[in-house]
């Protein structure tokens, strides 16, 4: 890594309050003093039980990943997690604002469509909001889209790239199959079936696990990919592109998932070209997702604006 930046990041789950139900909390801390490819240290923390431990864990961190919270059970929507996870994200982001305000923040906890706006509002209240450094992790949607398309079209998975835009719940997840690389032709039936499967893949896993949680392991893979991309960007790699749910002006919504270029300072550019020349199917789906995504964003903002956060 360039001399200017020591890459330190935490990944895992932070327990922020004594009254919380404790279920196997863990955290990892990596320190790379020179180059993230050669970590100089790895520290595992068995649990973080109080604010001072959380503060110590976050000091000097460049990338914070927040996967904390409850997962869905069959029959639930991601929005059904709002009441519990909104407060968890609020508290963790408050700690990030206090201890490592310049860090990239990766939000995994659902509902991402609301938890990212919550994080933004908390950071604003703390006076440290940098929209370029707040990311909703939607990488798993891309991983799924790539996988299902590769299977369908007998392509090598490593070659396939399908941008997924919008948000991270149901119809707000919009795979842009017309933008698949390498170019692939789909029938109308294939487009419908693939789109619905990608949108419902999280629910598919929740139902298969029958109450034992959601897509924990594939999410870990997706999170690792997004962290690695962030570290490459922090390391000065000028060719880092990922889809992510970020503050955006690509549509009339304040947050929107799209492909973004990530650099040392966070989002360097939103990539508008994926949204140009959409198929009729995609254009309709884009318009259809906007009311739901808007409501989820507004719900998150309203929640955060009701909180009193000490400056
Ligand atoms: N963005 C995405 O693509 C995905 C998001 N998720 C979301 O990630 C979250 C976690 O899912 P899983 O890892 O499958 O669940 P899990 O139950 O395996 O892990 C959740 C962790 O959060 C911790 N936790 C619970 N309450 C906490 C609190 N108050 N403060 C701090 N930590 C707390 C638990 O101790 C546990 O270690 C869920 O909200 C889930 O919906 C899951 C998969 C994909
Ligand atoms: O579906 C869920 O609850 C977890 C999630 O976000 C996903 O797997 O995409």
Write structural notes for this entry.
By secondary structure, the chain is α/β, with parallel strands linked by helices. The protein folds into two domains: 7-137, 3-Layer(aba) Sandwich (Rossmann fold), CATH 3.40.50.720; 139-295, Lactate dehydrogenase/glycoside hydrolase, family 4, C-terminal (L-2-Hydroxyisocaproate Dehydrogenase, Chain A, domain 2, Alpha-Beta Complex), CATH 3.90.110. The chain contains seven helices and eleven strands. The strands form three sheets. It has a six-stranded mixed β-sheet, with helices on both faces. Helix 1 crosses helix 2 (82-99), helix 2 packs parallel to helix 3 and helix 4 packs across helix 5. The two termini are 33 Å apart. Mean pLDDT is 88; it is low at 1-46. Bound molecules: 1,4-dihydronicotinamide adenine dinucleotide and oxaloacetate ion.
């Amino acid at each position: 890594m360039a001399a200017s930046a020591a890459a330190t990041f935490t990944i895992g789950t932070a327990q922020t309050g004594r009254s919380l139900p404790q279920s196997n909390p863990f955290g990892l801390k990596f320190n790379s003093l020179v180059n993230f490819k050669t970590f100089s240290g790895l520290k595992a923390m068995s649990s973080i039980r109080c604010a001072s431990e959380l503060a110590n864990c976050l000091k000097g961190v460049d990338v914070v990943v927040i996967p904390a919270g409850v997962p869905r059970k069959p029959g639930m929507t991601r929005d059904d997690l709002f009441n519990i996870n909104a407060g968890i994200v609020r508290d963790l982001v408050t700690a990030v604002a206090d201890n490592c305000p310049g860090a990239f923040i990766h939000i995994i906890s659902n509902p991402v469509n609301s938890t990212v706006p919550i994080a933004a509002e908390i950071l604003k209240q703390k006076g440290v909001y940098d929209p370029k450094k707040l990311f909703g992790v939607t990488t798993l949607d891309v991983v799924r889209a790539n996988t299902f398309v590769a299977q369908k079209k007998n392509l090598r998975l490593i070659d396939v790239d399908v941008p997924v835009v919008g948000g991270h719940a149901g119809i707000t997840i919009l795979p842009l199959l017309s933008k698949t690389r390498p170019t692939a032709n789909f029938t109308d039936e294939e487009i419908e079936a693939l789109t619905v499967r990608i949108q419902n893949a999280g629910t598919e896993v929740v139902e298969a696990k029958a109450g034992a949680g959601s897509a924990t392991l594939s999410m870990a893979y997706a999170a690792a990919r997004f962290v690695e991309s962030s570290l490459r960007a922090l390391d000065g790699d000028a060719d880092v592109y990922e889809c992510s749910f970020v503050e955006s002006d690509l549509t009339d919504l304040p947050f929107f998932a799209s492909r973004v270029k990530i650099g040392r300072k966070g989002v360097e550019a939103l990539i508008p070209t994926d949204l140009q020349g959409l198929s009729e199917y995609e254009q309709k789906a884009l318009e259809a997702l906007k009311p739901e995504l808007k409501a989820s964003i507004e719900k998150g903002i309203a929640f955060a604006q009701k909180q009193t956060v000490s400056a």
